[in-house]
Amino acid sequence: MQVEISRDVFRLAQVFTISRGSRTEAKVLTVRISDRTHQGWGECVPYARYDETLDSVEAEIAALPAEFTRDSLMDLLPAGAARNAVDCALWDLEAKRAGKRAWDLAGLPIPGPEITAYTLSLDTPEKMQAQAAANAHRPLLKIKLGTPDDMPRLEAVRAGAPDATVIVDANEGWSAAVYADLAPHLVRLGVALVEQPLPAGEDDALIGMERPVPVCADESCHDRTSLPALKGKYDVVNIKLDKTGGLTEALALRQQALAEGYRVMVGCMVGSSLAMAPATLLAQGVMVTDLDGPLLLAEDRDNPLIFDDAGVHPPKADLWG
Predict the structure, then answer these.
(1) How far is it, in rounded angstroms, from Cα 164 to Cα 138?
(2) Active-site residues: which are they?
(3) Nearest Cα to 34, choosing from 90, 95, 77, 81?
(4) Among residues 225, 238, 171, 174, which one has the least CA distance to residue 22?
(5) Distance CA 121, CA 135 (A)
(6) What is the pLDDT of residues 282-294, one digit of tens each?
(7) Residue 71 burial by Cβ neighbours in a 10 Å radius (0-12, 13-18, 19+)
(8) Which among 56, 98, 108, 270 is placed 20 to 30 Å from 162, CA to CA?
(9) Strands 39-44 and 21-34
(10) pLDDT in tens, 6-31
(11) 3-state SS of the chain: helix, strand, coil percent to 5?
């Protein structure tokens, strides 16, 4: 097999800010795998939170042996961005070789559209209210918080979009005391989910704490090996391909998480339609779909995913799978 790695940059439609910082573009790695007859491709987004850089992830992929399969890849690379791009490229390659869709190869029903969250960037309460008002027509809004003074922001978003379902992502930005203080207000303001309120290394504080709003593990959940440490702390797990290391592990994680009583959220890093395409298979019927990466971009791949009132649609074969 021939493996090609390239770096692509997609401009964002506007500055995107979370509690860790701001960005104006999405920098991704694109992997193409060819058997000299067919070519499959995948995309990953290296994430500094997990000690990943474009250079480090590219080096991991470049060090792969000449021959490998999706099964052997699980031992060759750890869960993370590098394995994600390669695994998804192999799924695409296998689909093209077989002349079938990826969901057929995975034994899944034909996927349909899923309503996706739309993320509002962290900003001043006034600007977040304006963002919310501009997107109040969307059924599901996700707001980035994670500071000690988030109540005015939360109140402002609810005022701007009184009818939308709202979920909150703190990106590990709260302490246990801040979260405990905010929790009753999350209920009052109709928040449907709170994502990773505490740092992953400090989330034992959630044990025994009342969770009036479902709490979702993001940074605390990567792959199936994460599940034992989540008991008693979380109600939902956020599955992202760049954390699991691809669709293969993500499907297995979803199955095991549901079997253990967790609900599932399917999320994403900020990437193109190519990065979201495999995740649309994973998102079928889950509690929350959060695959809005392409909606945050000023530019996208050719043959991008379709987003409409029905939600995000599965990819056409000329994009992926």
Answers:
(1) 7
(2) 144, 240
(3) 90
(4) 171
(5) 12
(6) 999 999 999 999 9
(7) exposed
(8) 270
(9) antiparallel
(10) 999 999 998 888 767 788 999 999 99
(11) 35, 25, 40
